[in-house]
Amino acid sequence: MNTTYFEAVYDVVRVIPKGRVTSYGAIADFLALGSARMVGWALRQSLDEALPIPAHRVVNRQGELTGRLHFSTPTRMAELLIAEGSMVEDNRVVEFKTRYWHPREMLGI
DNA sequence: CCAATGACGACTT
DNA sequence: GAAGTCGCCATTG
């Protein structure tokens, strides 16, 4: 398989600031490659391979923790977010709008 | 080879 | 603004 796309996604996810979150679409948009579905696909592999990727900081466009079922336990994703200062209620990031981080910011914008 | 299936998102009603 | 529809694209049946 071509790991180039995976590495590109991981590079972005790795630099998501602690306490902030981003969306699948934002990453796909920033890379101008693949699609939001592919980002989710890549992140699932990262969990299977137990790579040091903060995949819990990536949620869908509505701030919902749609990928929580892929973690070791269904509540693991929320616990990780809460542990670093984000508040989660009903599988959704509270104040998602203000905690949203676009990969564009990693370029100094 | 064709159909269904997702860690999704934009668009239309 | 919530709910439904369609596009997306690799993987799986």
Q: What's the CATH architecture?
A: Orthogonal Bundle
- What is the terminal separation in angstroms? 34 Å
Radius of gyration: 13 Å
Given as residue ranges, the uncertain stretches (5+ residues, pLDDT < 50) are none
Question: From the helix content, strand content and strand pairing, which structural class follows?
Answer: mainly alpha
Strand share of the residues?
5-15%
User: What characteristic shape results from the CA principal axes?
Assistant: globular
Number of strands: 4
Secondary-structure element pattern, one letter each: HEHHEHEEH
- How much helicity do the residues have? 40-55%
Largest sheet: 2 strands, parallel
CATH superfamily: Winged helix-like DNA-binding domain superfamily/Winged helix DNA-binding domain
Taken together, the total number of domains comes to: 1
The total count of helices amounts to 5
Mean residue pLDDT: 95
Q: CATH topology, anyone?
A: Arc Repressor Mutant, subunit A
Q: Looking across the biggest beta sheet, what order are the strands in?
A: 1-2
CATH class: Mainly Alpha
Notes on the protein architecture:
This protein is mainly α. The chain has one domain (4-104): Arc Repressor Mutant, subunit A. It has 5 helices and 4 strands, in the order αβααβαββα. It has helices at 4-14, 24-31, 36-48, 76-83, 96-99; strands at residues 22-23, 58-59, 88-89, 92-93. The strands form 2 sheets. A two-stranded parallel ribbon has the order 1-2. Helix 1 (4-14) crosses helix 3 and helix 2 crosses helix 3. The structure holds a DNA duplex (13 and 13 nucleotides).
